[in-house]
């Protein structure tokens, strides 16, 4: 098992299709890798270390920046299908023949597209805070007064929110709410892993 953690693992780079992708990989090697796909405009540092390190105890964890985001080069893709193609290209560049995927928000939509387009490559998907691409009611407008007044919404969140409104979409990032649910998320993911291991 790697001694690295989410906070100590070095950022590495791999180039494929003219795009230089930033990624981090650590955890328990040997099993099927677990590729993490994040939410809109998130980067490597936006994954909660308790979640990723919790899963790295039993998995080969891979985080990466989508094209045009964070430390990755290239242009930001405009469709979920393009993002799925980039995720597959990164997986190919890392030599992953088969892998499981954790998809959060937009990453969940990408995970579903990957599984649809490449069922022979995607073993399992874990979907968090997501739905079908373009699904009805996918506007994230159901915020409590506490969430609307969350001081952790910084100017970057406001720019993302404004940018999505300018494109005819509505969303609000909810970092405080996500932090509060961290322990629940880790427990659910571990329970799902245990259930998977005990299946025939």
Structure overview:
The chain has 200 residues and is α/β, with parallel strands linked by helices. It has a single domain (12-198), classed as Alpha/Beta hydrolase fold, catalytic domain (Rossmann fold). The chain has helices at residues 49-56, 80-93, 106-117, 145-148, 155-166, 175-180, 182-198; strands at residues 12-16, 19-27, 33-37, 60-64, 99-104, 122-128. A hairpin with a 2-residue loop joins strand 1 (12-16) and strand 2. Helix 1 packs parallel to helix 7 and helix 2 crosses helix 3. It has seven helices and six strands.
Key traits:
200 residues; Rossmann fold; 6-stranded mixed beta sheet; single chain; 36% helix; alpha/beta; 7 helices; globular
Percent helix: 25-40%
Largest sheet: 6 strands, mixed
Mean pLDDT: 76
Please identify the structural class as seen in this structure. alpha/beta
Q: From the 3D structure, determine the CATH topology.
A: Rossmann fold
Tell me the strand order in the biggest sheet.
Answer: 1-2-4-3-5-6
Order of helices and strands: EEEHEHEHEHHHH
Put the structure in a nutshell.
This protein is of the alpha/beta class and 200 residues long. The chain is built from 7 helices and 6 strands.
Topology:
Blueprint: E1 12-16, E2 19-27, E3 33-37, H1 49-56, E4 60-64, H2 80-93, E5 99-104, H3 106-117, E6 122-128, H4 145-148, H5 155-166, H6 175-180, H7 182-198
